[in-house]
Amino acid sequence: MSEIFSVPCPICQKAVEWSEKSLYRPFCSKRCQLIDLGEWAAEEKAIPCETADFAMSEEHEDWGVH
Fold it and tell me: pLDDT tens-digit profile of 14-59?
């Protein structure tokens, strides 16, 4: 039998069992999952990228925006 472990919910830190029973893992609930999604949609969260600033500056040059 495998060991069952838990992880903290990224939003509220409640322990979440890491198994198929936890439908929203790593989140504890649909509510926490939607809060996280909203943060990404509002651009409050982002994945760091060394080329992001460069890509944005090239994109703006194409649009004539500086």
Answer: 999 999 999 999 999 999 999 999 999 999 998 888 775 655 555 5
The alpha carbon of 31 is separated from its chain's Cα centroid by a whole number of angstroms, namely 14
The per-residue pLDDT for 10 is 96
In this structure, is the dihedral angle defined by the CA atoms of residues 31, 37, 41 and 47, taken in order, positive or negative? positive
Is 49 marked within a binding site? no
Query: What single string gives the DSSP state of each residue in 3-63?
Result: PP-EEE-TTT--EEE-STT-TTTTSSSHHHHHHHHHHHHTTSS----TTHHHHHHHHHHHH
Q: Which residues contact 39 (CB under 8 A, 6 or more apart)?
A: 45
